[in-house]
């Protein structure tokens, strides 16, 4: 094998490795892809562009992250998977699946997050048509899953990384510290 053949094999193998990772982890975001494969960001970007041009993967940016999918995922599935890559959003949906339609305060308490954190995630969950905020005659809100079976299927596809879990837990910690009243004397 000459040096050109070896280089082509390495490029092809790297591209195949990235494509396999996207197939196995639909909705994986760019940073997780580079961490998981232990590749340089520029190298991953190069191969992702090639995979996109050949229609082997689809890129979608949502909520500050760029996610990657195989073309067989539709718009709703891509949005759902992007949101479900966040631990707190998953916890909210699991809480609703376990308890049925619930008031926001019950969900915030059940997931152990501040109401402001819940609302941030609810905005995205509503936008991606994973749940609805139904209002009764007294204008009280009840959170209801819009597609429970499909959402359960999407949840099974998402396995969060340790890095994703740590970021979500750090956000919860900071949010909790901001919500707690301070009784410090100066």
UniProtKB/TrEMBL annotation:
PANTHER family per UniProt: HTH ARSR-TYPE DOMAIN-CONTAINING PROTEIN (PTHR36216:SF1), TRANSCRIPTIONAL REGULATOR, TRMB (PTHR36216)
Taxonomic placement: Archaea, Methanobacteriati, Methanobacteriota, Stenosarchaea group, Halobacteria
Positions in coiled-coil regions: none
Protein source organism: Natronococcus jeotgali DSM 18795
Residue span, HVO-0163 N-terminal HTH domain: 12-81
Name by which UniProt lists this protein: Transcription regulator
């Amino acid at each position: 094998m000459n040096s050109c053949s070896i280089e082509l094999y390495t490029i092809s193998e790297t591209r195949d490795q990235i494509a396999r990772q996207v197939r196995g982890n639909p909705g994986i975001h760019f940073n997780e892809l580079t961490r998981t494969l232990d590749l340089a960001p520029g190298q991953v970007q190069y191969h992702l562009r090639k995979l996109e041009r050949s229609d082997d993967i689809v890129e979608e940016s949502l909520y500050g992250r760029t996610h990657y999918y195989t073309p067989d995922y539709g718009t709703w599935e891509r949005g759902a998977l992007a949101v479900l890559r966040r631990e707190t959003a998953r916890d909210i949906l699991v809480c609703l699946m376990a308890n049925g339609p619930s008031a926001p305060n019950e969900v915030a308490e059940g997931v152990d997050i501040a109401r402001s954190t819940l609302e941030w995630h609810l905005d995205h969950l509503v936008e991606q048509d994973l749940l609805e905020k139904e209002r009764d005659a007294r204008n009280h809100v009840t959170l209801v899953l819009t597609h429970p079976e499909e959402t359960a299927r999407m949840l099974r596809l998402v396995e969060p990384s340790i890095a994703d879990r740590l970021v979500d837990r750090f956000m919860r910690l900071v949010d909790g510290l901001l919500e707690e009243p301070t009784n410090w004397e100066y």
